Here is the input.
Amino acid sequence: MDWRDEYQRKLVSEDEAVKAVKEGDSVVVPLGTPRVLPAALGRRRQELGHIDLRLSAPAVDPGWLQPGWQDVFNIEFEFFIGDFARHVTDDRRGTYLPSAFSLSFKALDEGRPEREEIDVLLVAVTPPDKHGYCTFGPHYWNKGSHVRRARTVIAEVDPLLPKMYGDCFVHISELDHIVELPATPVTREMVEEWLAPLPPERRADMMSILELGGDFNRLAPVGPLIAFVEPDVLRRYMGLLEPPDDARAIAGYLNELLPDGATIQIGIGEPSALMPKAGAFDNKVDLGLHTEMAAPGLATLVAAGVINGKRKTIHKGKAVAVAWSGANDEDLAIIDDNPAFELYDPEYLLDIRVIAQNDNYYAINNAVSVDLTGQINSESVFGGRMVNGCGGQPETHLGALLSKGGRAITLAPSTALGGSVSRIVAQQETGSLITIPRFFADTVISEYGVARLMDKNHRQRAEELIAIAHPDFRAELRKEAQRLFYP
Here is the structure.
């Protein structure tokens, strides 16, 4: 069958497509949420009975994140929770799946009894090319991996998604139901309607920020939910915030550590997302990029030739990622339909064995807190309150440790909550989630310097970390170190 005929045969409305979901099914909505399919599934609440719903940093809520819906939609988050959905885990109406990207399908692929089948996948794709192949847009993540394993794939064809390159294509034959979205651009009038519920001053502030990004099509996946985004969060995402003094100081130390020709990974959190603008890569040459996601300004560095991949060990000459999430509008304009940028499934690209093939691989991630033994917590606050998942941090961190000449760097401003709390702590609070165990700790940077923890005992690590803690907390940390590590 010609793929065009197959496309037409599979074409249905969104309400017809989601009828493929049956009671008891396991449904996956990965990062980079479709625009209309979640709402269509939400409308079936009364007839579904109960399904298991796996989400990752959702940006839309057809109701299933609200109290009272948990009897139908049993929510499980993987990799990231996100600001928008954090109230679900705070209220214990949803749970979290601790997993590594590269191992997330191991139980399923090997047929283990504990495996979780994927009954239905909801996903967004670009219109097909002349050969019937679509891509998943810039927010690829593990969509290709899910397509290959899901019993039923429901795809939303979104003409507003930009075309990508790499191993990120899906053929029409791999899709079971297709829903077409109109090629209607997002207009200023539509955005004004979405922002209408806001107070006038905040509405004007949000519109002035959004206008800086060019056309409004980038807002299509979010729609009316843009009204729930804080202005400073939006400025951070768009790379408009000036890095604070502590981030600039951290960038200075990072710049000193980073050699020319290194291949880098950088996280989207803070302060790592601020590093390009804060000057961490100034005056560097021949850097490479092998990353989970992006930070504002990375694509600009590729366009400027700072990141060119000339000295990379694998994927030479290409900037490779799992997703371009975190890139700002200027970056995405550079990445769109540009073969210098490639996307790959995380089960391949974040495999520790693949990462370690890169010589001089520098992983750059963040921490909520680091204790004096080197235990790194990047996921919870006030003990066990989970604020996000681990994402690809464990894999990139370990891959850097195993890379010839590599270094696993953790960035941590010395304080939080306006300077009232130290991020360098004597011991992690009860219930804290340890993202990186102490025996994998390597290099920690605060605005006060660099702590080198590798090949050092607990006493030596305590000295290194106290030296980069905020001066207001050093005396108490020294007292605690004496109690913990000395007779």
In short: The longest strand covers residues 73-78. Residues 111 and 199 are 54 Å apart (CA to CA).
